[in-house]
């Protein structure tokens, strides 16, 4: 079995289409199709079903995917040990993160990592969505849940809290609620329930069983800015809200506790740039632990 053909198979499986895989690999569409066909002939089975929207793995393709990922992990390990990767930290690492943590915490601090390792390139993707590490949508993901499936390595980063906030201007004009029952008399800023990336983030009921937002924003940073503008009362990440003197915490509601995890695919364990970036993120979180307490 030709490793190059297996590598192309993995790219198609992760992209879900031959064209997307070709772009990612820097090859033309015909070459990718031909190499997939060669691999199918070598294993004696169809690996993909061609659909109008892309390429779907067949049962044989699903079985090969597991073996191919183990082969990939072995190749990465060999390159790290024999190819001299251990001598320097270089290459590109893409980090997927929730927008609150990604924009407010990581973005101002990751520049120091590229100073430490001048040959390292960092791509930060701070958006309110989940990332597939098996499809290589990101090399490292910051998640709000510990993964329970897949060949993933997870380390807890930090506990964080969310609390109820209003702008000082809103409080001066409308006053602040003294109980959950009084929230019904106020405008509320919240999230879009069907767009939360995890049930863990559907937390409004922990403040009030009757929570009903008149203004919903699908990103944590958007909710912060909406509350700062005086649009209403919202549940905000405390480590972000504390930075803004124009926000005041509403004390009747107990903080909501959640945590962040750093996750990467098991096959990337031997890769020094992944280890270096993961260690740096853990280092800066530990240094700034007081922000999250």
Quick rundown:
The chain has 3 domains: 3-68, Winged helix-like DNA-binding domain superfamily/Winged helix DNA-binding domain (Arc Repressor Mutant, subunit A, Orthogonal Bundle), CATH 1.10.10; 86-153 and 259-288, 3-Layer(aba) Sandwich (D-Maltodextrin-Binding Protein, domain 2), CATH 3.40.190.10; 159-258, D-Maltodextrin-Binding Protein, domain 2, CATH 3.40.190.10. Helices cover 39% and strands 22% of the residues.
Would you write up a description of this structure?
- The protein is α/β, with parallel strands linked by helices and 293 residues long.
- It has 3 domains: 3-68, Arc Repressor Mutant, subunit A (Orthogonal Bundle), CATH 1.10.10.10; 86-153 and 259-288, Periplasmic binding protein-like II (D-Maltodextrin-Binding Protein, domain 2); 159-258, D-Maltodextrin-Binding Protein, domain 2 (3-Layer(aba) Sandwich).
- Helix content is 39%, strand content 22%.
- It is built from 11 helices and 11 strands.
- It has helices at 3-15, 18-25, 29-43, 59-82, 99-106, 111-116, 168-174, 220-228, 238-241, 272-287, 289-292; strands at 48-51, 54-57, 91-97, 120-126, 140-143, 152-167, 188-190, 215-216, 233-237, 247-249, 256-265.
- Strands 3, 4, 5, 6, 7, 8, 9, 10 and 11 form a 9-stranded mixed beta sheet that branches.
- Helix 1 (3-15) crosses helix 3.
- The chain is elongated and about 70 Å long.
Using brief descriptors, characterize the structure shown.
two-stranded antiparallel ribbon; D-Maltodextrin-Binding Protein, domain 2; single chain; 3 domains; elongated; nine-stranded mixed β-sheet; Arc Repressor Mutant, subunit A
């Amino acid at each position: 079995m030709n490793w190059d053909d297996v590598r192309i198979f993995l790219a198609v499986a992760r992209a879900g289409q031959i064209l997307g895989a070709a772009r990612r690999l820097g090859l033309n569409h015909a070459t990718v199709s031909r190499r997939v066909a060669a691999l199918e002939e070598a294993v004696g089975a169809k690996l993909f079903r061609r659909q109008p929207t892309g390429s779907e793995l067949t049962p044989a393709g699903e079985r090969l995917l597991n073996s191919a990922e183990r082969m990939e992990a072995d190749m990465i390990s060999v390159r790290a040990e024999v190819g001299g990767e251990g001598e320097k930290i270089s290459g590109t690492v893409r980090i997927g993160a929730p927008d609150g943590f990604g924009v407010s915490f990581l973005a101002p601090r990751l520049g120091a990592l590229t100073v430490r390792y001048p040959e390292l390139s960092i791509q930060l993707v701070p958006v309110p969505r989940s990332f597939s590490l098996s499809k290589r949508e990101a090399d490292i993901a910051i998640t709000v849940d510990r993964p329970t499936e897949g060949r993933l390595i997870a380390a807890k980063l930090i506990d964080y809290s969310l609390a109820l906030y209003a702008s000082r201007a809103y409080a001066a004009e409308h006053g602040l609620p003294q109980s959950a029952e009084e929230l019904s008399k106020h405008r509320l800023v919240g999230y879009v329930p069907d767009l939360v990336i995890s049930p863990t983030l559907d937390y409004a009921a922990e403040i009030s069983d009757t929570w009903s937002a008149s203004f919903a924003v699908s990103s944590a940073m958007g909710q912060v800015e909406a509350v700062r503008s005086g649009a209403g009362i919202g549940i905000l990440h405390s480590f972000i809200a504390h930075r803004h003197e124009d926000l005041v915490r509403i004390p009747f509601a107990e903080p909501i506790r959640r945590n962040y995890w750093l996750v990467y695919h098991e096959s990337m364990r031997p890769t020094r740039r992944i280890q270096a970036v993961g260690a740096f993120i853990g280092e800066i979180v530990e240094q700034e632990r007081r922000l999250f307490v």
